[in-house]
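Batch manifest, entry 17 of 40.
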Amino acid sequence: MPGENLTRDEARERAALLSVDGYEVSLDLRSAVGDGDEEPRTFRSVTTIRFRCAEPGATSFADLVAPSVTAVSLNGRDLDAGAVFDGSRILLEDLAADNELVVDAQCAYSRTGEGMHRFVDPEDGEVYLYTQYEPADARRVFANFEQPDLKAPFRFEVRAPQGWTVWSNGAGELTDGVWRFAETKPISTYITCVTAGPYHYVTDSYSRTFADGTTLRIPLGALCRKGLAPYFDADDVFLVTKQGLDFFHDHFDYPYPFGKYDQAFVPEYNLGAMENPGLVTFREEYIFRGKVTQASYEARANVILHEMAHMWFGDLVTMVWWDDLWLKESFADFMGTFANVGATRFTDAWITFANRRKAWAYRADQLPSTHPITADIRDLQDAKLNFDGITYAKGASVLKQLVAYVGQDAFLEGARRYFKRNAYGNTRLGDLLSVLEETSGRDMAAWARSWLQTAGVNSLTPQVLLDEQGRVAELAVLQDAAESHPELRPHRVAIGLYRRTADGALERYARAEADVDGPRTVVAELAGAQAPELVLVNDDDLTYCKIRFDDTSLQTLRARLGDLTDPLARALCWSALWNLTRDALLPARDFVDLVLRFAGRESDIGVLQMLHAWADSALVNYVAPQWRETGGRLLTDGALTELRSAEPGSEHQLAWARFFATAASAPADLQLLKDLLEGTEEIEGLVVDQELRWAFLEPLAAHGVADEKVLAAELARDDTASGKRHQVRCLAARPSAAVKAQAWAQVVESDALSNALVEATIAGFAQPSRRDLLAPYTQKYFAVIDRVWSERSIQIGMDVVRGLFPALQDSQETLDAADAWLSAHEKAAPALRRLVLEARDDLARALRGQACDAAADV
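Output type: structure tokens
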């Protein structure tokens, strides 16, 4: 892995020297199907690159990660492939002003989701291929200059097995046994794409007539494996796609620039999706094999719109280097929700954003690895790890704050000018700030210094002083920050005052917007208001901050949280209470109690499912160990009560059924799950489809009720790729020392498993119900991670280092072991150290939470 790294300094030097005129890439994928039992390892890749050099006679390099190179020629001169290719780079000496490089290589099929991924469907034996490159895996498929600012047009041609269809960024056609694709606009290497195989393909079209009378027509396509075709609701995918295209055309005033718009749902995908222009790829889990809640459909729509926003933010205009990754990801994350609310049926998507998306940001921004939104990205390993909660969710939250700061019209006009000035080019922070200054008249440099160039999250707390008549004499907002990141930022916030109405509802009766700046800001507009029972700072979720409460407000929430009628206000309060729990300011058992008392009244299904996840996390990580059994019993009983009382067939019933399965551990509860599986017990309206069957089987396996024979029978019932992943997870979950040893060996000592099965095995291995079985692996973990990081791909390395960290051995001894490893490995790869530091910090936070919860016993 280290030999494949590329530093920012190297990229800058190469960009100053070279400019690329075009690529022609020819791939021969006919080996993908193989001739026997042995899996094919390689395919032929021939690349021609035409490029210019600003300093004739200079030396540079091209990127290629491949098992072997057959031939290399530069300007008609054959080079010694063995001498110029070192496994990741091709040395280019004595460059001319105008150059042509031809590389004939044998590239490797991938099982890790990086480069050209090859998947064999266990259901029918069909082979499916797709590429995934971000940030720098195009070099695993063809020779190139792998950095975002060396854009160029691409022409692809592909030879594939007979009967296959092949897709790429441009429109393609099959002639004389070769798929040839239209030349792309100038784009970066990491967003080129090829998908090939016997995919199920559905088509549609979009048209739009603009004010000048011109009409834009976009062919639409959607594809998935044949085995998923019965579940593929392509009509809904196309509906959201068309709504999104209308929305972005309305707001961006720049026609979609990349011709067709295909969307491929592919197996064993590492990401949620990838914005390849003309051929967006998604993880196939967005095709739902069973009943799911509307939150799942909303999430899929959000991802579709997020990737579509990238066609402008990221593909049309691209950052120079990964330091400014936020220029695409933060904007796409914001625009995904903005368009979801503005264009689709998911008009409450900002609630999901406030409750779920920002939770990711708050966690990331309190880790020791937190960084400014405009990060310091030294190399590709840094870049890989910076696809995180700060770059995505915090960045999107800050953009939401920016819209409140400059106004929506000024923000969108700035975006329009940004596209037109920088189309097909590369930009830095200043390029965007300059147009926003033009359109808003605001000092964007000061805003950027506070919000984009500093790290950490501020906390805002209300301070209420009442007069003798019981009215507000003064209301102030106190701002503080962690000692490690002391920046106090300017916040545009709304402050809401809430009281009970005659019918017992808790509703807002006063609201004011204010610019909070510095440690204490008085909100004069609220003076004289009736005394509030609840003060909600950051009402309407305009800024990015941790909300705190005064004593009266916290008491009100403890007693009456379910009486809050506004769903966004309720979601913000739940999020704030969870942050208090994670910060060891609220005993975790108190959070569990709030969930038990009020979650059943939660109308927003996405918020309810988030509460289930938080309650489970509170039990696993933050309650005192001696209270875990009691807490687990309370959560299971509460979940079963809500499950039985939920409206039959409702999505709330489904959510409670899944949460009940997560919490179940007592023999009677496990027996109920078994009876529901076998059909000897029924709950009115609850359909136990195949996906729910696997959800019930995992706790049964983890508690020793479902053995290998039962799981094999279930796989026979669901002999699909999805079924195999579920079975592998359940097998690794079984409470046996031998099972854990086998799972460990499969992930750590072997590379035979694909990325998806590595993920499933790790998930099954790390079961909190039998922490004792995992205890022997603490020292083993710290002994192997350096080797794993150096030998495996970065994606698998990340999965292993994150997933197998001994977090469930929640003791000072584990913390000491992590500190000892960090002290002894100061020169380890910075990305590896970052992963260990993050996991160590999560463990330290859990121990502080447990101490806070234990104090509740006193």
